[in-house]
Design goal:
Layout lengths: L1 H31 L18 E16 L4 E13 L16 E5 L8 E3 L17 E5 L3 E4 L2 E7 L11 E10 L7 E12 L10 E14 L7 E13 L2 H17 L12 H22 L10 H26 L10 H14 L7 E4 L2 E4 L4 H31 L1
Parallel strand pairs: 1-9
Antiparallel strand pairs: 1-2, 2-6, 2-7, 3-5, 4-8, 5-6, 8-11, 10-11, 12-13
Length: 403
């Protein structure tokens, strides 16, 4: 039993040593006439076909979309395949038992590709301590899995915040080799989430993923075209959190404006309540603006509605202040001619089916005139109508436009 175990151990060690030596010799033979800086294609009759690079993008995690800076952050990796016509050994009989090798990306040719809208680091290929490896098959097919944390620019549409949907694009382009040298092609859909690694984002939900290969012209020479793939991510904001922290407080603050008419004008707290509403809306608008990009190209409907509430609150303060002043006027104080011109037509329209009230003073006959208290009632009636229309308009915009 001991002898058989020893024999198996020695055979295993011998096989491993032999396999290691064959791989070392194979690497030496392949690297002897190989230059990783040159395209690995063969010329036939002084012409060659462009190298086809097949690519697929896998999203491992979506860290988020920063509204203020308009930057999308995501952890991804690519699956690249192509055929190297130089670095292969399927025609060597002595190495037929070696089906694949794993080599550093710097030891073989890999495509120089760039994420042109990455704000931090555009090259896909990592160097130094983070250098990737390439899997090489005996027939020359290469497989490369570069991983990267992307920080790409994304022009956000803030109009329907916080119930918005965004479309962000990751632009991958070849810079130094035109499509006569190699071109990019997508594998399947070209982009998908990695089932084994994907982590859901708490704020954004991925609705759709797409990849579109196309060619773009050289900026200096229009006769040359370069290959590119644009990856598009459609993201929808998860609105539950913002319903509680943004929409619900906004609706409550708007509804509180209606209760201004409930507080008697004689009560000094009515003006203080209106001032509190006005200042609260300003603070609320400031908090919302902190998350918005500093751009005038597009304004959020929510920002517009909050600004509208600030305007309505300002008008309410003005009317309440005037109403408080009118409460101090006596019945003997008659309104000025201008005030009577403004408010009398309204009164006469309401009293169109009645006769004019007249009172006899001595031998003269005096028509009834509008008093300051009647003006106060009309102002408050107009304020109530304004607040009601404000609620109807705001709710309509919120429901039919934003949501």
């Amino acid at each position: 039993m001991l002898a058989s175990t020893l024999v198996v151990f020695l055979l295993t060690v011998s096989y491993c040593n032999g396999n290691y030596e064959k791989q070392r010799m194979l690497r030496q033979n392949l690297s002897e006439h190989y230059n990783p800086e040159l395209l690995p294609i063969l010329e036939i009759n002084n012409s060659s076909l462009p190298l086809q690079i097949n690519a697929k993008l896998f999203i491992m995690a979506l860290q988020g979309l920063e509204y203020k800076t308009q930057i999308l952050t995501a952890s991804v990796f690519w699956y690249f395949t192509w055929k190297d016509e130089i670095f292969k050994w399927d025609h060597y009989l002595e190495y037929k038992n070696i089906s694949r090798l794993t080599v550093k990306a710097s030891d073989v040719w890999v495509p120089e590709l760039y994420i042109v809208n990455d704000v931090r680091k555009m090259p896909i290929r990592n160097t130094g301590d983070n250098e990737e490896y390439v899997i090489v098959k005996s027939n020359g097919y290469m497989t490369w899995f570069p991983a990267k944390e992307l920080q790409t620019s994304c022009a956000v549409d803030v109009s329907k915040y916080p119930f918005d949907t965004q479309a962000c694009t990751i632009r991958m382009e070849a810079w130094y080799h035109d499509n006569k040298s190699f071109f990019l092609n997508t594998i399947g859909s070209g982009i998908e989430t990695s089932d084994a690694h994907f982590v859901e984002n708490g704020e954004w939900d991925i609705l759709d993923l797409s990849a579109n290969p196309f060619q773009y012209q050289d900026y200096a020479d229009n006769s040359s075209a370069y290959s590119s793939i644009h990856y598009t991510l459609i993201l929808k904001r998860r609105s539950s959190y913002h319903l509680i922290t943004t929409a619900f407080p906004f609706v409550i603050l708007m509804a509180l404006n209606l209760f201004v008419s409930v507080i008697p004008t004689e009560c000094g707290e009515k003006l203080g309540f209106c001032m509190s509403q006005f200042l609260t809306m300003i603070v609320f608008l400031t908090l919302i603006a902190q998350d918005m990009p500093s751009s005038s190209l597009m304004i959020s409907y929510l920002t517009f509605l909050i600004s509208l509430q600030i305007l309505v609150s300002g008008i309410t303060i003005l009317i309440v202040a005037i109403s408080t002043y009118l409460q101090t006027r006596t019945l003997e104080d008659r309104p000025s001619y201008l005030v009577r011109v403004i408010f009398s037509p309204i009164r006469y329209f309401q009293d169109s089916n009645r006769k004019k009230r007249c009172t006899r003073v001595g031998d003269s006959r005096q028509e009834g005139f509008i008093t300051w208290l009647e003006i106060d009632r009309k102002l408050n009636c107009g304020l109530n109508i304004l607040l009601l229309l404000n609620v109807i308009a705001t709710v309509s915009i919120f429901v039919f436009v934003i949501i």
